[in-house]
Specification:
Elements lengths: L2 H19 L5 E4 L2 E13 L3 E10 L6 H6 L4 E7 L6 H14 L7 H7 L10 E7 L3 E6 L2 E6 L2 H12 L28 H13 L9 E8 L4 E5 L9 E3 L2 E8 L6 E7 L4 E7 L10 H11 L5 E2 L8 E2 L46 E4 L2 E4 L1 E4 L2 E13 L2 E10 L6 H6 L4 E7 L3 E2 L1 H16 L3 H13 L5 E2 L3 E6 L5 E5 L2 E6 L2 H12 L6 H9 L2
Parallel strand pairs: 8-13
Antiparallel strand pairs: 1-2, 2-3, 3-4, 4-5, 5-6, 6-7, 8-10, 9-11, 11-12, 14-15, 16-17, 18-19, 19-20, 20-21, 21-24, 22-23, 24-25, 25-26
Helix pairs in contact: 1-6, 3-9, 9-10, 9-11
Length: 528
């Protein structure tokens, strides 16, 4: 049997318990009223990862979505969590995006509704959201009622999330995907469908063969180097058992250049690899960059000296020096190779760090983040950094740089001061279409009624991301007072957008009152 066939069989084995747990019944009872299944669908992250499966139930059959939204009759939606877990932060972000998309992001009832999802959900948890005229919407989890929200207006907004014209996810528009035949309204035994699927699996099940896994041993120099797999969730340990195939690993240590290797494991093989990391060369900067750095430092009238020099070189001299010492601060440093600052008074001050790393940087999500960057308005220091997640998937490391540290996110968003956000991708990649969807939803979330005045510039901004990005690539988003927001990718300028109102909306996405990721906001503001 081919590898593709093995994969299909394996996925069918996995899907059986999920289908069993999230089997949508053809009808449900509310008191003495019987509600019929009109349609069912799924919510998928980026069209790949299934988050939940939902069914819509009405007292009469109809496939007119707007009629259902306006209908003041009993109806219900049943949601089965099919992901491996769904955190409360993900529920909050998902519901906010949904209400924003239907133009009802400012409804006062949303806060109460979100309180019903304040706990994380596990796979196979289910929710019943039921609307009864004159009573409102009640929300229950695993059969236990959590609370109720009155008002027909809220019911319309909520059901518009699944059925409205703004919903462009065809998998989620549950009212039009399935209209069960009348003869299926009588509940069937729940074992019937899974039993059929199991029979199919048994017919295609490959003969059992003992597959010997290989073992991997890596000797790293220095010994405290960190070793991790790229692209898979396994944690490295000496002698870890792996199936045959190719594996990509990264090795990094303080003061050394990080290295990536591709390891090929054969069946039953004990693979032994030795990796010697190279120490970072702090004096190998091009002469032109060193000269530019000395000119910038001259304004601060400090001194620079390398560990090998007993005499300090005055920074007030701007004459190019062929054997110039390393700059005390990086000039827009590359994200994975930050420069180690020289021991000047300015860089010797303690800085808030999230994780250990070379002097003048820290590591988060496997990325070394520099503790300062240069803008056209001078040096900016790291305020904090965190990881942007969506549906539990790590997307990018976000770092925020300001003139001076603060934990007031709304003050940052509304400040007419220089600032930089660096976005360093740690997922396998994001397409231009995915960037477009995320940015569009994010701007609508923070701008509200002002989105119309920003729409043209938002579209211009989104165009900078049309080529997408791969793991390891990064974007710098730089704001300079009196100028504009400038966007660069891997150090190359893509363009800029003018207008302080655009800057305010953009930085509100990360640290404003309604950020796209609360944990990322906390990291950017506090470094934790």
């Amino acid at each position: 049997m081919s590898k593709k066939s093995y994969l299909i069989v394996f996925m069918m084995f996995i899907s059986v318990p999920i289908l069993w747990a999230s089997n949508i019944p053809n009808s449900i009872m509310h008191g003495k009223s019987k509600l019929l299944l009109i349609g069912e669908g799924t919510l998928k992250f980026y069209g790949m990862i299934e988050v939940y499966k939902g069914g819509l139930y009405l007292s009469k059959e109809t496939k007119n979505q707007q009629e259902i939204i306006e209908m003041d009759e009993p109806m219900a939606v049943k949601l089965f969590v099919t992901a491996r877990g769904y955190k409360k932060e993900q529920w909050e972000m998902g519901w906010h995006n949904g209400f924003d998309k239907v133009g009802q992001g400012n409804m006062p009832e949303i806060g109460t509704f979100l309180s019903f999802f304040k706990e994380d959900s596990k796979m196979n948890d289910y929710y019943d959201i039921t609307y009864i005229p004159s009573q409102g919407c009640s929300i229950a989890k695993n059969g236990k009622v959590l609370g109720k929200i009155s008002g027909f207006a809220f019911k319309k907004a909520l059901f518009s999330i699944w059925l409205g014209p703004q919903q462009d996810d065809k998998n989620l528009k549950i009212a039009i995907l399935k209209n069960p035949p009348k003869e299926q309204e009588i509940p069937q035994l729940p074992q019937e469908e899974p039993i059929k699927k199991e029979e199919i699996v048994k017919k295609e099940e490959p003969p059992k063969q003992e597959v010997k896994k290989g073992k991997l041993f890596i000797t790293a120099n220095p010994q405290d180097a960190k070793i991790r797999f790229i692209g898979i969730s396994k944690k490295f340990s000496q002698g870890i058992e792996l199936e045959k195939g190719k594996y990509q690993i990264s090795i990094m240590a303080q003061g050394y250049e990080p290295e990536k290797k591709v390891i090929v494991i054969k069946e039953g093989e004990e693979k032994k690899e030795t990796v010697n990391l190279k120490k970072k060369d702090l004096v190998s900067l091009p002469e032109q960059k060193v000269t530019t750095t000395i000119i910038a430092i001259a304004k601060n009238t400090t001194t620079v000296a390398t560990p090998k020099q007993e005499k300090a070189i005055p920074t007030t001299s701007i004459e190019p020096i062929k054997t110039a010492p390393p700059a005390p601060e990086p000039i827009t440093p590359a994200p994975t190779k930050p420069l180690k600052p020289s021991p000047t008074k300015e860089t010797s001050a303690p800085t808030t760090q999230v994780a250990s790393g070379p002097v003048g940087s820290f590591e988060i999500g496997g990325i070394n983040i520099p503790d300062s960057m240069m803008s056209s308005k001078g040096k900016l220091i790291l305020n904090g950094a965190g990881i942007r997640r969506k549906f539990g998937i790590k997307i990018y490391v976000g770092a925020l740089y300001l003139k001076q540290k603060t934990t007031d996110g709304e003050k940052i968003a509304s400040a007419d001061e220089p600032m930089i956000t660096r976005m360093h991708l740690i997922c396998r990649g994001i397409t231009g279409r995915q960037f477009s969807d995320v940015w569009t939803d994010s701007f609508k979330r923070v701008a509200g009624d002002k989105i119309a005045t920003l729409e043209e510039r938002v579209n211009q901004f989104i165009a900078f991301f049309k080529d997408g990005a791969k793991e390891g690539e990064y974007f710098d988003i730089v704001y300079s007072p009196g100028d504009a927001v400038k966007v660069s990718k891997n150090g190359s300028v893509l363009g800029k957008i003018s207008g302080f109102d655009f800057k305010e909306a953009l930085f509100s996405i990360w640290v404003g009152a309604r950020p796209v990721d609360a944990n990322l906001k906390t990291g950017m503001l506090t470094g934790k």
